[in-house]
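Q: Please design a sequence for this.
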């Protein structure tokens, strides 16, 4: 998606040219084979081809008038979510567990982090960042948070995570958010 439509526009242009060539060739072939076809078969095939040309022309008009774009509203939402996820979740493990819908493992990771903070194995800033990520992921997975967790989240959630919450709520379906989170997991593996 990094091209933001350039590759897709090129592919669309190529497909449109191929479709036009195919329809024109179909009409030419039909005229050349007219003698071999009975009148009804010829008329029916010609009518179908002309209908296809008419539909093709309507599609071209829509594209040219701006009523149809490659990066439409849904794609725009996907781009916004992808950007929000990539900025909101910096910990690949959290992204992976979120994408795989594994709240139990997220809670286990949270307990491990609490222990690591107490023994001095984890810095406070990193702990806060990761705990906010995990609590946000748990909330998005429909898990109930304790009052303490809610208070921690309210006190420490930044603007980026708030934007992630807003965008993912506006989208409506958690599955779409999870699908994009999965994409982010794959991207971080590379």
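A: Design:
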């Amino acid at each position: 998606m990094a091209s933001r439509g350039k590759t897709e526009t090129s592919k669309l242009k190529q497909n449109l040219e191929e479709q036009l060539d195919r329809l024109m060739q179909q009409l030419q072939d039909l005229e050349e084979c007219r003698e071999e076809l009975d009148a009804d078969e010829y008329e029916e095939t010609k009518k179908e081809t002309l209908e296809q040309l008419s539909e093709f022309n309507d599609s071209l008009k829509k594209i040219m008038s701006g009523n149809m774009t490659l990066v439409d509203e849904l794609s725009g939402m996907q781009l916004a979510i992808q950007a929000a996820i990539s900025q909101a979740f910096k910990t690949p493990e959290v992204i992976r567990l979120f994408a795989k819908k594994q709240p139990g493992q997220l809670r286990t990771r949270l307990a491990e982090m609490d222990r690591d903070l107490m023994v001095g194995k984890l810095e406070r800033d990193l702990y806060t960042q990761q705990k906010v990520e995990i609590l946000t992921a748990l909330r998005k997975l429909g898990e109930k948070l304790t009052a303490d967790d809610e208070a921690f989240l309210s006190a420490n959630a930044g603007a980026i995570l708030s934007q992630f919450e807003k965008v993912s709520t506006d989208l409506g379906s958690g599955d779409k958010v999870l699908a994009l989170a999965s994409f982010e997991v794959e991207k971080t593996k590379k």
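Q: Thanks. Anything notable?
A: Residues 9-100 form one domain. The chain has a mean pLDDT of 74.
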